[in-house]
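Allow me, if you will, to draw on your knowledge of protein folds for a short while. A protein sequence and the structure tokens that stand for its backbone fold form the material at issue. I would ask you to consider whether the tokens describe a fold that such a sequence might reasonably adopt. Thank you for your consideration; the sequence and its tokens are set out here:
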Amino acid sequence: MLAQSFVSILPRLSEKEMIETAKIHSIAGELESSAAATLTRPFRAPHHSASHIALIGGGKEAGPGEITLAHNGVLFLDEFPEFQRNVIEALRQPMESGKVIVSRAAGSFNYPARFILVATKNPCPCGWYRSDQRECVCAMTQIINYQKKISGPIADRIDIHIEAQKVDYERLASPDEEARSMAIRKRVERARASQEKRFQKEKSAHTNARMSPRQIKAYCPLDKESQQTLKNAVESLKLSARAYHKIIKIARTIADLEESENIGFNHIAEAIQYQPRG
């Protein structure tokens, strides 16, 4: 439910994105007769039993998979560790490049796959590890093996890691949630507008997420306090180069949401909190 609601706070599709989305769903034979289908961002939620071909693409006709059908939208993978290992690992290249190449005897097909991945997993097979509400019944070996199903390289490609807490009944039953979503969307759209203005002279990036290391240096200067905080995090958490750049991009986005021209210490500190602790 939370993942489906996530789409409601994303910026509206641009004209270019609408055309791209319509073309993809037309190729897949999923374009609905109603034009409204291309006006909203895609939300794809394949079952954890989905095959490599179903998720990545391929088959006899080398058709697009779920990651391409989620282009410009959200790919929701519930119970992430329950997906086949080869399916999970196949996400590496698309998550990095925003595209996927499907090769068959008839030729190679290059499909776009620029999606937001939202994945969920339990802390253990029974779901109650470290819970204060119920006792976990899993053996430690089961917990370790379960957590190992998501490899380091895949976890490193996920920008934000959050431990979801139990939602109170009052919050679930609140009639104001829709209004909150609309307010959040306006903030997101303002932040997106700031990014488009920032990158108007760039060809390879128009959002913070697509910044290259060169662009990070050009558009994301850090003050001394922020640099020292980031250095300490990299050394203590043994973060990769990818995680280092990821933290700066997240911090830049947090600053945009707050309509702050510069990245501050508080933005870097918050971005670090979203990194996995192992």
Notes: The first strand starts at residue 43 and ends at 44.
